[in-house]
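A quick aside before the break. I want you to see a complete sequence-to-structure record at least once, exactly as it would be stored in a machine-readable document. Don't worry about memorizing anything.
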Amino acid sequence: MGVETSIAAPASRALEVRAAMFRPGENGAEELAEGSRIRPGDRLSLEFEAAEPVHAWVVNEDLDGNVFLLFPIAGLELANPLPGDRSHRLPGRIGGVPQYWQVTSAGGRERFLVIASRHPLPELERELAELTAAGSETAGVHRGVGGIAPAPPAGGGRRDALDTLVEHLDADRQRDGSVWVRQLELVNP
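That is the input. The structure line, written in C-alpha cells, reads:
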C-alpha cells in the first residue's frame, strides 16, 4: 500500500499489521497501489488486520493541505481498540450498513496515513481531535476525501502535516516497536 515504516528496537517484537486500500467496482474490489488514480465519487475502504489488538487511525491530506480524520470517527460501530487476528474493513458500519470514504472533489494528490499502536497515543489523539472528521457537516467545504457514504444496496493544514505526524511518531515510539505507520499516495486529477 505504499511506504511502510515499522518502528522497532532490536530487543522488541515489531507490531505486525496488514493494510490495503480498495475501491469497489463492477468486477469486485480493486486494490489501490501507490499512484493509483481516483476521482470524485469514488468510494474507498481499507482492509486492516493486526496480529494483536491495536488502536488504529487513518488520516487523509490533499495537495492543498486539507487534512481529514477518516478513522476513528463518531457514529461508526467499529472503534478503538480493534480486536486482533481478524480482518476489519474501515471505516466500518453505521446502523449495520457498511460505509465507505468518498472522494468529494478533485485534489491533485491524496495522501493517506495509517497508524497502528499497541497502546493509546494521547498526544496523537489531541492532534487528530483538531482535524475535520470525514462525514461531518464541515467536511463538504474542503477538497479531497472528506465524505463518508453507505455501501450501495446489494445487487486544513499544510502539505507537510502528515510528515510532521510521522516524525513525531518516530521520535516518540522508536524504542519498543509498538507503533506501525504506512503511507499511500493516490492521484486525484
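Two observations worth writing down. The CA atoms of residues 26 and 126 lie 40 Å apart. The chain has one domain: 3-188. We'll return to this after the break.
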